[in-house]
Structure formats: structure tokens, C-alpha cells
Amino acid sequence: MKIQQFLYEIPELLRSQLPAELQGFSTLGPTGSLIKFHFGDRRIHYEVWVQRRARLVEVGLHFEGDRAANLAWLDVLAPRLPEVRHLLGPEVTAEHWTEAWTRIHEEAPLETLEEDSLLEVTARLARLMRALQPLVDLEAPRLLPGSAT
Which DSSP letter does residue 2 get? Predict the structure, then answer.
């Protein structure tokens, strides 16, 4: 299957794997080799990024707003990483990724873009969203100006 088709299949599969309170995400893409999912603020989004040459797929929560806000999110969520790893596995890392952006993510080998790998990637993303979105929702009123309390 081509990357675009692989990514195009994720949203419907993802909704079927999430509890009702997490099914209201919006989708950006797919564009190129990635697709993004957010809950109202596009700067804070979940991402699936297929890196075909490296034979990897990244599943992560990205903070791509202004630098100070992104670092604040990392400061708040990084201490919770042991709890997140307990739920998702030791491969999950939190990092200051670029000059301004931060992320909590995991990379996994991806040999082929087949149905089995689609199901595994979607399951990983659903687990990540179930583990992290409640923390994002908890901290948003404090870290996002104008958020409801």
C-alpha cells in the first residue's frame, strides 16, 4: 500500500479504538508522509509520520506552538513520563526536538505498509492518546491562554 493510502485509513480505524470522549478529534492531512490529529488547537497534535527510507514510523504528541509554550508543555509532561512508559512501553521519549518544538513520541520499525502494520500503528496511536490526552486536558487551562477551566 502507498503511504498516502496507509495514512488515509488511520482516522476511521482510530475512532473505532478510542473511547467516546476521544473520538471528536480533527484530522490534518494526510500530507506527504504524515497525518495529524488535534482536539481544537492545531499546535498541539498527535502525529503519525512514516519514514520509509529509515523503515520507521513515529507516533507522537507534538507541541508546535511558540517556543516558550512548547517548553512549558515538556516541563509539565516529562515528569509524568514514567507513568506514560508504564502504560505504553519504554520506547516512549520526551524531547526538545527542534529549536522551538517539543514532542513525546515513540518510533517503531516499519518494514511494509500492510494491513497488519496499519492496525499496529493505529493501536499505538490510540494508546498514546488515551494516556496523554487526559493530561493535556488537565493542564490546558493553565498552559493555554483562553482555555476553559
Answer: -
Q: Which residues contact 48 (CB under 8 A, 6 or more apart)?
A: 7, 10, 34, 35, 57, 58, 59, 121, 125
Tell if the pTM clears 0.90, that is, is over it: yes
b/e map of 25-34 (b: 16 or more CB within 10 Å)? bebebbeebb
Residue 44's nearest CA partner among 148, 115, 140, 141 is 140
Burial class for 59, CB neighbours closer than 10 Å (0-12, 13-18, 19+): buried
pLDDT, one tens digit per residue, over 99-114 is: 889 999 999 999 888 9
The DSSP-derived string for 51-115 is ETTTTEEEEEEEE-S-HHHHHHHHHHHGGGHHHHHHHH-TT-EEEE-SSS-EEEEEEEE----SH
pLDDT digits (tens, 9 = 90+) for 53-76: 999 999 999 999 999 999 999 999
Q: How far is CA 135 from CA 63, 98, 108, in A?
A: 14, 23, 24
Hey, what amino acid is at 10? I
